[in-house]
Amino acid sequence: xxxxxxxxxxxxxxxxxxxxxxxxxxxxxxxxxxxxxxxxxxxxxxxxxxxxxxxxxxxxxxxxxxxxxxxxxxxxxxxxxxxxxxxxxxxxxxxxxxxxx
Length: 101
Known about the structure:
- This protein has 101 residues and is mainly α.
- It has one domain.
- The protein has helices spanning 2-5, 30-36, 41-50, 53-65, 67-74, 86-100.
């Protein structure tokens, strides 16, 4: 499926997030969410696989260090909204990327 549909890191659309839509305590993680916060599972796995190991470990450590703030936001009121913001989705996917590596 990955090959058939071109689901590779190089083919993903750029992610540009609005820091104003991210809780203040997590805004410094916006660059990581833009890099790793990919909603497609295959593309996200490819992004992670193609990054240098130190970069992956740094991302994972940053996410783990802010697990409480991430949980508070991602399990908060926005989770019940009918439409999720791009920022919410990217940070959810960043969390998945950290959990998967």
